[in-house]
Write a structure and sequence with these properties.
CATH class of the domain at 138-166 and 176-233 in chain C: Mainly Alpha
Helix content of chain C: 40-55%
Largest interface: A-B, 200 and 280 residues
Mean pLDDT of chain B: 92
Distance between the termini of chain B: 31 Å
Chains: A mainly alpha (374), B mainly beta (864), C mainly alpha (235)
Low-confidence stretches of chain C: 19-33
Largest sheet of chain B: 26 strands, antiparallel, barrel
Order of helices and strands of chain C: HHHHHHHHHHH
Radius of gyration of chain B: 32 Å
Distance between the termini of chain C: 77 Å
Strand content of chain B: over 45%
Number of strands of chain B: 38
Number of helices of chain C: 11
Shape of chain B: globular
Largest sheet of chain C: none
Shape of chain C: globular
Low-confidence stretches of chain B: 1-27
Number of strands of chain C: 0
Number of helices of chain B: 4
Oligomer: heterotrimer
Helix content of chain B: under 10%
């Protein structure tokens, strides 16, 4: 326990130092900016079109796209934050709706405004608002709000992302991808979650801070995935499992739910490459390879959990005996008398069975290791 | 006990500090693109955030009660908003929480399943320290989270940046993994590369009684490891819409794992009553884990209106600081022909994993097309390489083996215990991979869409190694540290044109690899607003290298249905059918890698080499297979504040194999009810059950004729693999899960209660044509049930927590957890009596059969 | 317990004690406890006995008029008002979330049944006849479309296109307590201005609907309030 104060002191010192460090550049930056709020208080002279034009495009520098759109006035100034220029998405169910600006929205949705300001997503729009005055942070996602404000329950009058909304999942996805295309979502189109009609808001809720990161719809990644994949989550209760219930791992450590180049949504080219990211020692290559190991870790392991040791899909030595019927010792039927408490204890069955001798089963780099016992 | 290594941590943070000065603009996160380090938590708080989950009474909106649901129908939790306070006079605000307290563990605190991934300790613990700073004007932010249960179980994580501009992350974490808490290794030097026998045991010449005594005297130890990871990453705009990403992570993995030690098999040599026991040697040893892995990730992307480009480089550099394990063998190993052995077999050796380097570069390009279409191309090249210096074939000294009459089987160690005995001094191992993927999709109308995908992947193993000893001119190797050659005539592992000319041994590595081409065609049909269908056909053509089949073709059809027409419910159902076939199945594709293919090979007594395996064997990754799967996922909103969800799933696999895996079946169900009547109250109940089944067949060979006429016949039903030696194993497993969780904030006190239960039962049955399938046919009479004892794993955890606010910003939380479990695995039966069985030494007694352990603690909670 | 853990706990307790002292100080400076916040989000439509209410309305008529149309523009017209709205207001006068020199005293002796009956009675009365409203006035425009440039939302979203209450389309989502939103048609301009002023100043803030109106009222300038009053009172 002697080490605790040291590590703890380091953490505290680091945290406070960083806090201090950031105050300084923050203040400096603020001075460079035009005084906020002037645009919003000058009020009356702005038309709805003016507001629409001022409305942000988040795609981190979507000015390129904006400039390519003949319906929007060209911009060449660098916005104060990249959120200052997001386009307002078109709502196919309310084609005539017009933008009304965030201030109008939060006049009624005041509590939403408070809760949402704790979320990264809305906080970033607010940062934009602080710089450019009236803008449609809300409408950058929900589409133009005039129809909704006049008749809030009319189906489709606003782009909505929750249960019972008239907005189609396709429209919902397009709104989010308007800014978040590419990168981790490069393969969203055609991914299994897209094809099953999931909406971004099935897993994310940018309207409140419900998770430490990732504006998730539940407090943790694993809880989000478990909304639908409870059978997989149950496997982590088994005797051998990856440390998900212990909080050390999440589903998204291996899978990218936004779509990838593999069917199980793995982030790497193959199953094995995903496993190697933590189990780098098994990458080798080895002088002597074990064919099913190099082919796929899943031949022998269930990565989510198993009732055998080390995530194996079947008990040893039976796992091995599914393929190994070579002459002499591999192919005998093992029976309980060969157990440690039996009349003829047999190393092929006891303890770690085959692996007690063929220990380098993932491959051997020894010149005498062709059978993995060196 | 270790602590944070201050230097690397300080360097990381220093780097983070420098990066903040970068005038970058842009960048949304790409975390979900990269493997690992997305979750920071521990056994005390798996979410790593729970103390901050205190919803206010207000809810989400003044306009309506309750909480909204996801489009599929699950309730969003009520918002937890950390109250922010202004920091100084500027635009920065901050929030923070410190949870600090004391944990006490009572009962079987060393139970393996209790400690598996959590380093529970008595003493002070940092539940959570979380701090956040936000600048409402610039969008700048800094967030920190940390928790510490012990020096081996802690995390600290910092994120900082400016919304939409750049982001920096730095972390340090220790992850414990306990493999066994009841290990009794007899060797000295556990954790090092040299396991030596304790005084009282003589290498190669100990009595069984002495080994037993040494095992009894061995102290109990834990086997396990700690992963210490630290990392730094930076993401931001580099130049006009080009977003860059860079990260470095480093992991030190230290500890031990259970390992092996073969000195030839022992089951065939029952003790004859000699104090030195039978023959052979089977040693469960302990290996060191001392790894360093450094990963580098670089990414560059451009997201335009039409084009999207993404380039990712991944480099991983693995270093094994203990790349071998030497161990001593206590047992006397003698030959079966009654000659005196030239020397004692005392030393064994393992090569542990070599260092390796890995590079992967992936380029992705997508373009939007008309009709809501997209063309997406991806190509990747990867290479994994290692060129470690090879160890000599054996580490013995002097002379092993025996000589007399026709058996001139001496193994002069000096000819083999030097790297001069190798055809190459280093491994030159390399596998290159290539990936190309092209996908085209169109949705010309909202009702209809289609996509086509072509994926090609290649794994090319370039390793070529010939087991040739230039010192002796012999091929092959020394099997099992010279022990096999010290026991059985002719079976040293060597081939030459003299004494060993009848020996059929592996003389080269087999460079396994494959080319895989996958074509997919899918159509979407939105039949109505509430019903949509999706049909996908996949053709997977695989060309394995040096395997039993040169070609494997799988056709797969999957139909999915998403329905919102059942009231408020969302139903997602799919059925899938796949049929795998392939080319000719060659039961022995490895001939070229064995000495029987070399000139000078002479079949013993004129009989062709013994059949490699039975020709009816179909390995399950290569066999014909028919697969069907079905799955239904239902989310049903029940009233305003609760949700019922259920999944039903099943799969059936039929393998066309007389010998080998024949079928597998899985059927399961889960159900859950979640209730969230107000921000103060939460409850859930869940149940789950799954049944799995696996059946395979094998055939014991007729060992009496090995080397005699007929042993070259691979056919099932032939003399070597007679039908009366045919047998089956049937593995049936059942898993049950249940749990209840409830929490309510009474205002003066917040109560959290939970019970989570899991139970697994495994039953292994077998069937055989005749008792000849058994090693000891007489044993059949002793096991009339034709079944192994049932394995089980049961775990039940009650947890309770009471939180009292003391002031507005200070609270106290008392918590307790009672976990109990029971376990049986027949692999370990008898190990509680002895770990030494004639010429076998076991180290791991196995997980505890019963355990119960209580964790209690008090945490002081301060909102900063 | 080891020495370090004791030390850490002691530190933590010290922080706690400091926090408590601070809290005590702020608590002392706070005002006397107010009436509990009324969460109207689950407010169900209210029903009562209109006939019985008629019998209890004698005192009310003094200000609100014998037919629910106020005797002076300082008092609100109650005729045809939403019963739920009326009930909630009476209840809040009684419980103290809403305060008025006259109404607080008047509501104090009323039983729950009294309040329901009175609410039902006034809801059953015919509203004041429509007036010659100017549909091109700024008030009309604010009511129907708001003024986005100033962040003013249209009133009609909650108070109905005809100012006679909302007509929501059911959609399976959690719904606002529509019935508790007042009808504004024909309401006195002076009373409307007072109500909006009370929302804006926070004098009326102790229920969830008031929290919504607080946000809305803050977007309205004095001229906006007058324009709305002029429009609605003549409608």
């Amino acid at each position: 326990m002697r080490v605790l104060p040291l590590s703890f002191a380091v953490v505290l010192a680091v945290a406070s130092a960083l806090g201090g460090l950031l105050v300084l550049p923050g203040g400096a930056r603020a001075q460079q900016q035009a005084s906020p709020g002037t645009a919003s208080s000058s009020g009356g002279s702005l038309s709805q079109d003016d507001i629409a034009r001022m409305l942000p495009s988040t795609d981190m520098g979507a000015n390129a796209a904006r400039n390519a759109d003949p319906h929007l006035a060209p911009v060449n100034d660098s916005p104060a934050t990249p959120f200052d220029a997001a386009p307002i998405p078109h709502n196919p169910l309310a084609p005539d709706a017009q933008a009304i600006g965030a201030k109008t929205c939060v006049a009624c949705h005041s509590l939403e405004n408070v809760q949402a300001s704790h979320s990264l997503h809305v906080a970033s729009f607010r940062a934009g608002a602080a710089n450019t005055g009236p803008q449609a942070a809300c409408e950058s996602c929900h589409g133009p709000g005039s129809e909704h404000a006049k008749n809030p329950t009319a189906p489709g009058s606003i782009i909505a992302f929750t249960h019972g909304s008239a907005t189609t999942p396709q429209t919902q996805q397009e709104v989010c991808l308007g800014c978040h295309a590419g990168g981790a979502r490069q393969h969203w189109i055609g991914s299994v979650h897209q094809e099953r009609g999931l909406s971004c808001s099935d897993c994310h809720n940018p309207m409140a801070r419900l998770s430490p990161e990732g504006v998730l719809a539940k407090p943790s990644i694993n809880e989000v995935c478990a909304t639908c994949h409870k059978d997989i989550m149950a496997k982590f209760n088994r005797r051998s499992h990856m440390p998900l219930p212990e909080g050390q791992m999440s589903c998204v450590d291996c899978h990218n739910p936004h779509g990838t180049l593999t069917r199980p949504l793995l982030k790497t080219d193959t199953v094995n490459e995903t496993c190697y990211t933590c189990h780098a020692e098994k990458r080798g290559p080895f002088l002597f390879e074990h064919a099913p190991v190099r082919e796929s870790c899943l031949n022998c392991h269930d990565p989510h959990g198993s009732n055998q040791q080390t995530l194996l899909v079947a008990p040893l030595p039976m796992l091995c005996q599914q393929c190994h019927t070579m002459t002499r010792h591999p192919n005998d039927l093992q029976v309980p008398t060969n157990l440690g408490n039996g009349s003829t204890p047999d190393e092929r069955l006891m303890g770690r069975a085959c692996l007690t001798c063929h220990t380098n089963i993932h491959g051997s780099n020894n010149p005498s290791g062709s059978r993995f016992h060196k | 006990m270790r602590t944070i290594k201050p230097m690397p941590f300080a360097i990381l943070l220093g780097l983070a500090g420098c990066c903040m000065a970068l005038p970058a603009v842009a960048g949304d996160g790409s975390d979900s693109m990269r493997v690992g380090d997305l979750q920071y938590g521990n056994g005390l708080d798996p979410r790593g955030w729970t103390p901050l989950m205190a919803p206010g009474d207000e809810g989400m909106s003044w306009l309506h009660p309750g909480q909204l649901r996801t489009p599929s129908g699950a309730l969003y939790p009520y918002p937890y908003g950390p109250p922010t306070r202004p920091l100084g006079g500027g635009d920065w605000t901050y929030w923070g929480l410190l949870e600090l307290g004391y944990i006490h563990v009572n009962g079987d605190r060393n139970a393996e399943f209790f400690r598996q991934y959590t380093d529970w300790k008595n003493g002070a613990a940092l539940g959570l320290f979380a701090l956040g700073f936000d600048n409402r004007k610039t969008g700048g932010y800094v967030e920190f989270r940390g928790s510490r249960l012990s020096a081996d179980d802690q995390y600290y994580r910092l994120r900082a940046g400016r919304y939409g501009s750049y982001k920096i992350e730095a972390f340090y974490r220790d992850i414990p993994h306990t493999v066994s808490t009841s290990a009794y290794p007899v060797w000295n030097g556990v954790g090092s590369t040299d396991l030596t026998l304790p005084s009282g045991l003589t290498p190669g010449d100990s009595t069984i009684a002495a080994v037993q005594q040494a095992s009894r005297d061995a102290p109990r130890r834990s086997i396990g490891l700690t992963r210490t990871r630290e990392g730094l990453s930076l993401e931001g705009e580099l130049y006009r819409h080009w977003i860059g990403y860079a990260s470095v992570t480093n992991e030190e993995r230290n500890g031990t794992r259970l390992w092996g030690g073969p000195m030839f098999f022992s089951f065939a040599f029952p003790s004859t009553g000699s104090p030195y026991g039978g023959n052979g040697g089977v040693l469960e040893t302990v290996r060191p884990i001392d790894f360093t892995t450094t990963d580098v990730n670089l990414g560059l992307r451009n997201v335009g209106k039409l084009w999207r480009f993404n380039a990712v480089y991944t480099g991983s550099f693995f270093r094994d600081h203990k790349d071998h394990l030497n161990y001593q063998n206590p047992f006397l190993i003698t030959n079966v022909v009654g000659l005196p052995n030239a020397g004692l077999v005392t030393d064994g050796q393992f090569s542990l994993e070599p260092d390796n380097d890995y590079h992967n570069l992936r380029l992705e390009l997508s373009r939007e097309l008309k009709w809501h279409g997209e063309l997406s191309l991806a190509a990747a090249y990867g290479t994994m390489r290692q060129n470690d210096t090879l160890l000599p074939p054996v580490n013995c000294t002097g002379t092993l083996g025996f000589a007399g009459g026709p058996f001139q089987q001496l193994i002069p160690c000096a000819d083999w215990n030097t790297t001069a005995a190798l055809s190459e001094s280093s491994a030159h191992a390399r596998i290159d991979t290539g990936l190309f993927d092209a996908k085209l999709s169109f949705h010309p109308s909202s009702a209809f869409g289609w996509h086509a995908d072509l994926r090609y992947y290649k794994e090319d193993n370039k390793t070529r190694y010939l087991a040739y000893n230039p010192l002796t001119g012999q091929y092959g190797y020394i099997s099992e540290n010279g022990s096999q050659g010290s026991v059985v005539p002719g079976e040293v592992g060597i081939f030459d044109n003299g004494y060993y000319s009848t020996s059929n041994v592996q003389i080269a590595n087999i460079p396994f690899g494959y080319d895989d081409t996958l074509f997919e065609l899918g159509v979407d049909w939105n039949a109505s607003r509430d019903n949509s269908f999706n049909l996908v056909y996949t053709f997977d053509h695989n060309e394995p290298k040096h395997r039993e089949r040169k070609r494997l073709d799988e056709q797969r059809l999957k139909l999915s249905w998403v329905s919102k027409s059942l009231g408020d419910a969302t139903l997602r159902a799919s059925i899938e059918y796949a049929d795998r076939t392939g080319g000719h199945y060659d039961y022995d594709p490895y001939e070229a890698y064995y000495s029987a293919s070399l000139p000078g090979y002479v079949p013993a007594d004129g009989i062709a080499p013994t059949a490699f395996t039975v020709d009816a064997m179909r390995k399950y990754d290569m066999s014909d297979r028919k697969e069907s799967k079905a799955r239904v996922i239902l989310l049903y909103p029940l009233g305003e504040s609760s949700t019922v969800s259920a999944t039903f799933y099943g799969s059936r696999d039929q393998y066309d194999a007389q010998v080998g895996r024949q079928n597998t079946r899985t059927t399961g169900f889960t159900g859950e009810w979640d209730w969230q009547p107000s921000p103060r109250t939460n409850a859930s109940v869940y149940v789950g059950a799954e049944s799995t089944h696996l059946k395979f067949a094998n055939v014991a060979d007729n060992e009496a004729i090995v080397g005699a006429a007929g042993s070259e016949d691979p056919s099932l039903g032939g003399p070597l693999y007679p039908l009366e030696n045919y047998w089956h194993d049937l593995d049936n497993e059942r898993d049950y899960n249940a749990g209840v969780n409830f929490s309510h904030d009474f205002g003066r006190v917040r109560l959290d209660l939970g019970w989570n239960y899991t139970q697994s039962l495994s039953k292994l049955d077998y069937a055989y044509a005749s008792t000849a399938a058994l090693t000891h046919p007489d044993a059949a009479a002793l096991t009339p049930d034709d079944a192994f004892p049932n394995n089980h794993y049961r775990s039940s955890t009650f947890s309770a927590s009471l939180g009292f606010p003391v002031t507005r910003s200070v609270g106290v939380r008392l918590f307790g957890q009672y976990q109990s479990g029971s376990f049986l695995d027949w692999h370990y039966l008898g190990f509680d009596d002895t770990l030494v069985y004639d010429h076998r030494i076991y180290t791991d007694e196995g997980p505890q059969l019963h355990y119960s352990v209580t964790v209690v603690g008090v945490m002081l909670n301060v909102k900063l | 317990m080891t020495r370090t853990s004791i030390l850490l706990l002691a530190m933590a307790l010290a922080v706690a004690a400091a926090g408590r002292a601070q809290d005590a100080a702020t608590a002392a400076s706070a005002a006397a406890p107010a009436a509990p916040f009324a969460d109207l989000r689950r407010q169900a439509p209210v029903r009562g006995d209109a006939q019985a209410g008629a019998g209890k309305a004698t005192v009310c008529a003094a200000c609100h008029g014998p037919q629910g149309v106020a005797v002076a523009p300082t008092f609100p017209n109650l005729a045809g008002q939403s019963a739920t709205y009326l009930y909630v207001q009476l209840k809040q006068f009684k419980e103290g979330q809403r305060r008025d020199p006259v109404m607080s005293g008047q509501a104090a002796p009323l039983s729950d049944a009294d309040m329901r009956d009175l609410a039902a009675y006034y809801a059953s009365l015919a509203p004041k006849p429509a007036g010659p409203a100017d549909e091109s006035s700024r008030g009309a425009q604010l009511y129907a479309a708001g003024d986005p440039a100033n962040g003013i939302p249209p009133c009609q979203g909650c108070h109905g296109a005809d100012a006679q209450g909302p007509r929501p389309v059911p959609n399976g989502k959690p719904q606002p307590p529509w019935a508790s939103f007042p009808h504004l048609r024909g309401q006195s301009a002076i009373y409307l201005a007072k109500a909006l002023g009370d929302y804006k100043s926070g004098a009326r803030a102790d229920n969830s609907n008031a929290r919504v109106m607080q946000g809305v009222a803050q977007t309205l300038g004095d001229e906006d309030v007058q324009a709305l009053g002029a429009y609605l009172s003549t409608r």
